[in-house]
Write a structure and sequence with these properties.
The protein is α/β, with parallel strands linked by helices. It contains twelve helices and ten strands. It has a five-stranded mixed β-sheet with strand order 3-2-1-4-5, with helices on both faces. A five-stranded mixed β-sheet has the order 8-7-6-9-10, sandwiched between helices. A hairpin with a 4-residue loop joins strand 6 and strand 7. The longest helix is centred in the C-terminal third of the chain and has 29 residues. Bound molecules: 5'-O-[(R)-(carboxyoxy)(hydroxy)phosphoryl]adenosine and zinc ion. The site of 5'-O-[(R)-(carboxyoxy)(hydroxy)phosphoryl]adenosine (KG4) has 19 residues, from helix 6 and helix 7. 5'-O-[(R)-(carboxyoxy)(hydroxy)phosphoryl]adenosine binds next to helix 6 and helix 7.
Length: about 350
Amino acid sequence: MIILGIETSCDETSAAVLKANKKGGEIKLLSNVIATSLSLHAKTGGIIPEIAAREQVKFIIPVIEESIKVLKNPKSEIDAIAVTVGPGLIGSLLVGVETARTISFVWDKPIIPVNHLFGHIYANFIGEDNIQFPAIALIISGGHTDLVLMKNQSNIKWLGGTRDDAAGEAFDKTGRLLNLPYPAGPQIESLAMDVEKDIYHFPRPMIGSDDFDFSFSGLKAAVFREVQKLKTPSDNDIKNISFSLQEAIFSVLIKKTFKAVKGFDAKSIILGGGVSANQTLRKRFEEKIKSENLGTELFVPSKSLCTDNAAMIAAAAVFNPVETDWRKITANPELYFD
Ligand code: KG4
Ligand code: ZN
């Protein structure tokens, strides 16, 4: 089957075409087009929902047109349209949802509604048929930090998540304190590269708690205190803070993920979401698997599939193909795990 994916939950506008066999697996990505309004948000230190949605209205049709160029006759070849229905910004979600409903009506195609968070998990299944179950998936993005158990490829059970800020949010909020452009994650990663010592040793919130929850909001306060003490942090101070921040966030993510891996005897660890693009984090996971001699396999999507994209939305639809009439599709900004 051929699926057209549409993703507009935050500031990206993306459309993708992928081919899969009906039972999942053998997922082949034919196109994945992404337009972003990120440069318009860099100066404001965060996304302005109104600006994001206005840009998406401009981008959505050209992006879809570009993505379906890989097909000779899109109208007859596409079997279904997968669209992100939530969670996300309401104005942004509506752009994708209303476009999908229109194409569905005009071309008479079913819509498969997709939870954006599931998309981050299924990004790992694109071109990858060898994920063994049970698996533990860690979703780490700008809006979410969730740990889930996958008993098989379509059975997802939420184990825990952040009680306040998401992991990516901790990167972005620290970035603002350090005057780094939004989103700060990639820059903090490269600033931390030269550092070897965890000088600041920021708190590791909830690292020993008897659950699978996280809390990252205290980190920005800890960083704020250090920045105040330094008054004008030097380039070197900023590098040291970046390294110590990463260490604090990664220590907790790794501790809780491996607690779940051992508790559920997981054969695979799956990462997804913008923060999983971080190479140091990947390395830390690999090292931990080795040092614990667990034999667990780590899966991380390619960099462009870690951050928001429509390919992952189409992939999620392959494993949860709830074909729905366009009249019943609505955006749900608060959508979460059941
Ligand atoms: O998944 P995503 O594109 O959007 C959401 O669904 O939120 O994730 C964006 C988040 C931002 O907070 C950004 O700072 C973070 O992912 N991020 C990173 C890296 N690349 C993006 N964080 C740490 N290291 C990176 N290399
Ligand atoms: Zn996302």
